[in-house]
Amino acid sequence: MTNNARLREESNKYAPGGVHSATRNVEPFHVFTKGEGAYIYDADGNKFIDYQAAFGPYILGHNYPYVNNKVIQALSTTDMFGVGTTDLEIEASRKIVTHVPSAEQVLFCNSGSEATYHAIRLSRGITGRSKLIKFQGCYHGWHDYVARNMLSAWDKIGTRDPGSAGMLDEAIDNTLVCTYNDLDDVERTFNENKGEIAAIILEPIPHNIGIIMPQPGFLEGLRELCTANGALLIFDEVITGFRHDIGGYQKVAGVTPDLTTMGKAMANGFPIAAVAGKKEYMQRFNTQPGGDVWFAGTYNGHAVGTAACIATLEMMENEPVHEHIFRLGERMRSEIRGIVDRLGIKAYVAGFGSTWTTYFMDFEPKNYTDLQHNDAEFYVTYRKKMIEKGIYKMPMNLKRNHLSYSHTDKEVDITLEAIESVLKEMTGK
Ligand code: PMP
């Protein structure tokens, strides 16, 4: 029995399914023991080039020394105090407010789900309205406000599709679902729910279904519709934030939301997230005397997360992090396009910056419904064969790959060679 299999059995005894988050129980199953730079290692000594990046946080690479050292240094003096603030919270906040256009003020929490929960509750507190618009296929966390119509089965698109048993009916029914890149659909939804919609929440690039690019005018149109209807625009930049620009995708797009949620790449793998936005809105949180929207958390602003955030943003300020990962991303996408063209494979290579996704379909998908044309079975075999070649990709169909500052042209060369060889084998060409 392999170590992976033995430890999996052991884990199954103690945790349901042997894993501690949905979507981790995937085949082939690995017990990971080490991460370093662009590589991860399992309990049987297998080594992989990692593009999963733990679902996105690793923008500098695993166990990045500059970040780890700052965390260790911070822990030798600061841990948690429970009242007041720390120099780490102040410095991390200052950096976010400096770089992210919509962030006039910021508050820290521990996960992306907490951040989206707080942003939505704040939008309801401000507007006195209950309803929320989200888009089919976008993911914003596990809580009742947003856990509906995520990666729905194809026959559930356009229907009421709760993501979990145990959700409150009222929460599900107050979340309206629109089609991404379809402004008419959003406008119609506003008109049918006049004066009732508190906010729109969206991933400005829906990375939870790969890389669907907002079509020209879509984000601008949402901005206008929100302003015209007195609703707040919330960009969930938990994946896009800091990965696509130190100012988030809002900086790239030139569209400023009212509220922004952040996480993942903001601290290169350490647990911290944030909600940020216009000062007049943020002042409604009860962290401000007289504030009436409840915001609290024992571990909020912990030294580990804030120190890691400061170090990660310092790296982006002082080194050509984005230049490097964008160049590798461009190279990866254009060479994969060359490979699929040469082999005559029906594929659309999507991407932005450090990310890419190969959809096995012959046109650019603009929304979740379009992804029905993607050959999921082909992807699953492709991924399995890539893992056998030492290239670790996202465990689910329709997800994206991430490059980090630790990846170099050498890893890209190895990956491209593996892609070509696997696709040749699969197509018999
Ligand atoms: N928003 C987005 C866009 C996400 O991708 C995720 C996590 N994948 C979340 C929110 C939730 O974050 P967390 O898992 O840290 O709660």
UniProtKB/TrEMBL annotation:
InterPro entries, alphabetized: Aminotrans_3, Aminotrans_3_PPA_site, PyrdxlP-dep_Trfase, PyrdxlP-dep_Trfase_major, PyrdxlP-dep_Trfase_small
SUPFAM superfamilies: PLP-dependent transferases
UniProt entry keywords in alphabetical sequence: Aminotransferase, Pyridoxal phosphate, Transferase
Domain of life, source organism: Bacteria
Pfam families listed in its UniProt record: Aminotran_3
Family under the similarity heading: Belongs to the class-III pyridoxal-phosphate-dependent aminotransferase family.
Designated name of the protein: Aspartate aminotransferase family protein
Protein's organism: Paenibacillus hodogayensis
Lineage: Bacteria, Bacillati, Bacillota, Bacilli, Bacillales
